[in-house]
Specification:
Blueprint lengths: L6 E7 L6 E6 L2 H9 L5 H6 L3 E8 L2 H12 L3 H11 L15
């Protein structure tokens, strides 16, 4: 039996909500941990995008990648609208995911 995979398109921001990073992953926990511990890559390390403010699930990787590209092409205002509709206080959705951070 095949295990169903889930793919995530997500948006991270920094402490002041001034920088938005959009990405895609098959493991939202691992990827968020990488961002929070400075192992998320050059951009996320430089801009300290450690707060998960939005994510959505997709059944297919190509759909998740297409969605990532779509969101990356949006204006900041449109990205903010998406976040505000789902997380109006811009809370860190992963704040309780890790004990050691």
């Amino acid at each position: 039996m095949w295990e169903e995979r889930v793919y995530y398109t997500y948006i991270m921001t920094n402490k002041g909500n001034t920088t938005l990073y959009t990405g895609v992953t098959n493991d939202i926990g691992r990827r968020t941990y990488e961002h929070k511990t400075g192992k998320g890559g050059v951009f996320s390390s430089k801009y300290k995008t450690t707060k998960l403010v939005y994510y959505e699930e997709n059944k297919y990787i190509l759909n998740a990648i297409d969605r990532e590209k779509e969101i990356k092409g949006w204006t900041r205002k449109k990205k903010e609208k998406l976040i505000n509709e789902n997380n109006p206080l811009w809370e860190d959705l992963a704040k309780d995911w890790f004990d050691e951070i």
